[in-house]
Amino acid sequence: MGVGEINRTQLPKKSGQVAPLILGLQPSALIDHVAKVDSSLLDRIPGDKGGSIPVAFEGLESILSEVKSADDPSPINTLAGGSVANTIRGLRVGFGVTCGIIGARGDDEQGRMFVSNMLSSGVNLSRLRTKEGPTAQCVCLVDAIGNRTMRPCLLGAVRLQPDELTIEDLRGSKWLLVRYAFHNLELTRNAIRLAKQEGMSVSIDLASFEMVRNHRSSLLELLKSGDVDLCFANEDEARELLSGEPKDGPEAALDFLAKHCQWAVVTLGPNGSMAKHGEKIVRVPATGETQAVDATGAGDLFASGFLYGLLKGLALEDCCKVGACSGGAVIRSLGGEVRPENWQWVYKQMNTKGLPAPKLANHVIIKDD
After folding, report:
1. What's the confidence (pLDDT) of residue 288?
2. pTM (2 decimals)?
3. Cβ–Cβ under 8 Å, residues 24 and 173
């Protein structure tokens, strides 16, 4: 772990500077190493295929070595990652929403890589601390049908501590995005408490089915607090949320989440998504016929599109449709970042469906609708 704050990464907030509309809390900056692999390699790695369990640095290095020494090695795509960063980057690049990241990065090559990638995407990093120590990393292994297996290396990585978060980090913004993680629970609770003091809305992503399974009671407590306005869960996370209950499927999870959050969303992969707001329930199919190259970031980019829809005041169904477009775009290439040509695909899909695409060609930036 780092030994205290050294400096802010970029552009100290100036008097009168407009705060980003949306802030993402990612305690540890993260670098993703994404590669296509044969299923036989996945058989040699501990843990469930398709899941996300932490590994030590030696384990991460061992997996990367396995990838590089394969009979037909795949190129490794290295870029800034993390669920919150993926969503924030998608909102900024694809939808023109002013966004920032709250967290910490190490004073190493990976930390500098994270900064470079996010700054080039236009994300505000004035709330990102730089600390002595390593930046978190994650290996993302993608099989032949596009399913991904994640092995994050977080042990020893620098991260933002609960007492380092201040009300000034949040002041002036409208939304706070968080990802549920038990090891960051105290920070998450503090961030939500401060966000509510500032009158902000809070969105949470349920992270992984393992996280829900292993730390369900704390998650339920957080949801039942009434402080979470929007919750995103995928189908596997939804099943774990109510595991052991008489009704434990995605539909039951959607109903449960909607009792405690204004908006509840359950994504169903190729089967689309469903969402609930008040008594309104919608089901929306996935967009496009393209075979998934890599499912990494699909849920994160769905959240980008859904949040854009909320900011534009779209109907619940249309929010899901925009999410389906952006989520469908990221799976067309490796990694959690949508390529420029795939953003053009998103806008074409939106226009076809009668959805308001952002006017990025005219440099229109959404500040507050």
Report:
1. 67
2. 0.89
3. no
